[in-house]
Specification:
This protein has 144 residues and is mostly beta strands. It has a domain of 100 residues: Sandwich (Immunoglobulin-like). Helix content is 8%, strand content 34%. The protein is built from one helix and nine strands, in the order αβββββββββ. Strands 1-2-7-6-5 form a five-stranded mixed beta sheet, with no helix packed on it. Strands 3-4-9-8 form a four-stranded antiparallel beta sheet, with no helix packed on it. Strand 3 and strand 4 form a beta hairpin. The radius of gyration is 21 Å and the shape is elongated.
Length: 144
Amino acid sequence: MLKSEIEKFFSDEDDLDSFGNNTQLIANDEEEEAEGQLSIDMYQTDDDLVIKAPVAGVDPENLEISVTDDMLHIKGHRKEEHKQESKNYFLNECYWGSFSRSQSLPVPVVAEKAEASISKKGVLTIRVPKANQSKGKMLHIKSE
């Protein structure tokens, strides 16, 4: 019993990336089918937070993106053009179907000004302006 609990603990931990996000396929409540997770890159420039994700083969109308002050949500569906009988496959690694990603944003942003585009090579780029933050002020104490 202890051995199985230890194995479960370590197998669950394998589903977490270095930021603690669950990378395991999750069930979609509406359709009860496995849902894939979208991989992303996120970095900042002086003015923007930039998110990039590979979405080759996904029609823009099959993507749903929302940004709030502190969260990014991307949902989509990659349709398989044609499926061969599984007995004919040597490998079947490409993910077809629904996928999603929710990610907390590391800096405050101006969600209303977010923009998204897809390159010809199938890379989704989301640019969100960073919110102006007060840099603070050093106070000098006056004696009375």
